[in-house]
Specification:
The protein is α/β, with parallel strands linked by helices. α6 packs parallel to α8 and α11 runs parallel beside α12.
Length: 547
């Protein structure tokens, strides 16, 4: 078996191809969008025409969708009639394929004639043949000057046709080719890619596009994996000021095969609104690796997070026979989602996160899943009385100043042991030589057995023990510091794993929290005076799940 065959077996997008022997031809491999067969059934989706409150749907056509369905665009759009589509995105380039300009212009004109708003899109993949990634991915090499010139031409062409362009979330880099290594020099990959992507964004996207069309609105759509942005060149401290808008990927997919919980989408969308005020209006998710509930949940979380425009990806996959029930479920539930959208202000527990930080990975979403209406923010001068700190709330050397600032302002604080270990003045965190498997939790006179394989590797030596594991080690420890109440969470880690749809295993992370009613009760206790936990528990997800 050749190496490339091995790679094709595990390549993420290709693993999501529609189950058919007659897949449409796309372009270069690795692909950036799963393949599907040509649509021949133009029957409209079932369901009453919707009229949602506070948001609307937009529909995304990949470059291959434009190629195949553009010539029959009026007939094709009838499939989507019940969704009351307001805007259509026409992609001009993806994976080495460029749509012919006359076709783009004619499709745009026909859609406008039908009453749709029309915008452009670009997926910046496969401009370079030099790219060398450590894993199969369509992401590019932006050290390659010739590739950047090709990308510049695509954006110039697109800006000449459309007044708005959205960039698919493949605008990141994992390239480690010889040119990248040489240009990186002594910098870290994060440092090099941060400056590289900032410079490329200005020189090869924004400046040339604005020169062709000064009024063009350019949107950078971000993927959902924000904790790894800095590794791949998405330094938002640099990119947010450059782009006109930020689009947000709220695709969580099936939590049984992915790392993201159902409530993740609203958390991520609100986080982007916090760090890019005025620039975040659009959410985007796809239909891959979803059942009916998860597909609709992605829409609900987008709306709960505050999205005004919901971009449905994409026109070529949604009408496939196996996908129609998912879309029809979305149609049926949309008006109800619109009514629930007014609850977006329920998020009243700030969780501080500084850009480009690490630690406590994937933990934030579990506060929401445990029924705590937390929201991520980069702001320290918060109005709320209580705040959550994790290892991502500051850089190691900045934690004492952040903590002192919050104590000075008499804030109550819930912080993880990963954060507490940087505050030795207040908290005595001991590293355990032998990690202890957790079997029980005790809180407020009640004890509960735990079934997950979880361990603690630290102990808190001072403070008042509020919740215990194994009746011996601290889970939650309380403190009075000046005018503030502080709780330290000594959360266990797990060795349990799940298997993704590609066959790759990944950690179960903090799912054990959701398996223990008593642990969730203990975690919620500090927040009871400061948030409507009962209401949030009722609406935190559109459906009820057994995690």
């Amino acid at each position: 078996m050749t190496e490339i065959t091995k790679q094709k077996q595990i390549e993420f997008c290709e693993s999501l191809n529609y189950p058919s022997k007659n897949l449409r031809p796309f372009a270069k491999w690795p692909i950036s969008v799963p393949k599907d067969p040509l649509i021949t059934d133009f029957t409209p989706f079932k369901g009453k025409t919707i009229s949602p409150k506070n948001f609307y749907y937009a529909l995304f056509f990949t470059a291959f969708d434009v190629r195949d369905y553009g010539p029959i665009i009026k007939k094709y759009m009838k499939i989507f009639a019940p969704l009351s589509i307001k805007k259509v995105y026409l992609e001009t380039y993806r994976d080495g394929y460029t749509v012919e300009q006359p076709l783009l212009e004619s499709v745009k004109a026909e859609l406008i004639e039908e009453g749709y708003e029309v915008s452009g899109a670009v997926t910046p993949t496969h401009f370079s043949d030099k790219v060398k990634n450590s894993f199969p991915t369509a992401s590019g090499c932006f050290t390659d000057k010739e590739a950047n010139k090709k990308m510049k031409k695509v954006f110039e062409m697109t800006a000449g046709i459309f007044d708005e362009i959205i960039i698919d979330d493949w605008f990141f880099t994992a390239c480690e080719c010889s040119d990248c290594k040489k240009a990186k020099g002594k910098k870290t990959w994060q440092e090099y890619r941060s400056k590289l992507m900032s410079d490329v964004s200005k020189k090869f996207i924004m400046e040339p596009a604005k020169k062709v069309n000064p009024n063009v609105n350019i949107i950078l759509k971000l993927p959902q994996w924000y904790e790894r942005f800095y590794d791949r060149g998405y330094d938002l401290t640099k990119l947010i000021p450059i782009f006109d808008e930020i689009g947000v990927g709220t695709e969580t997919r099936d939590f049984k095969q992915a790392r993201f919980m159902p409530a993740y989408g609203s958390m991520f969308f609100k986080y982007m609104k916090q760090i890019a005020p005025g620039k975040v209006k659009k959410a985007w998710f796809d239909i891959y690796q979803c059942g009916k509930e998860i597909y609709t949940e992605q829409a609900f979380q987008s709306v709960l997070g505050g999205a005004q425009e919901i971009i449905l990806f994409c026109a070529g996959i949604m009408p496939q026979p196996l996908m129609r029930p998912l879309v029809e479920e979305l149609i049926e539930k949309t008006d109800k989602m619109g009514r629930l959208s007014s609850f977006g202000k329920i998020f009243t527990i700030p969780m501080i996160r500084e850009a480009n930080t690490y630690g406590d990975e994937l933990l934030a979403q579990y506060f929401l899943m445990a029924g705590i209406p937390a929201y991520l923010t980069d702001k320290r001068n918060i109005k709320e009385k209580i705040v959550i700190l994790t290892a991502q709330s500051a850089r190691k050397e900045d934690f004492p100043a952040l903590f002192a600032f919050l104590i000075k302002n008499r804030k109550n604080i819930v912080l993880t042991v990963e954060a507490a270990k940087y505050l030795k003045k207040y908290f005595e965190v001991e590293e355990l030589e032998d990690h202890v498997q957790v079997e029980t939790i005790a809180f407020r006179g009640t004890e509960e057995m735990l079934d997950d394989t979880i361990f603690i590797n630290r102990e808190i030596q001072n403070g008042k023990r509020i919740a215990l594991v194994n009746n011996a080690y601290s889970l939650i420890t309380g403190y009075k510091i000046k005018g503030s109440t502080v709780w330290v969470l000594n959360l266990p880690y797990t060795t349990d794993e799940l298997e993704g749809h590609t066959g790759v295993k990944f950690s179960a992370n903090f799912r054990y929290i959701l398996h223990s009613p008593l642990m969730m009760k203990a975690l919620r206790a500090p927040f009871e005076p400061y948030a409507n936990l009962t209401l949030y528990e009722a609406i935190k997800t559109f459906y009820k799940y057994k995690i």
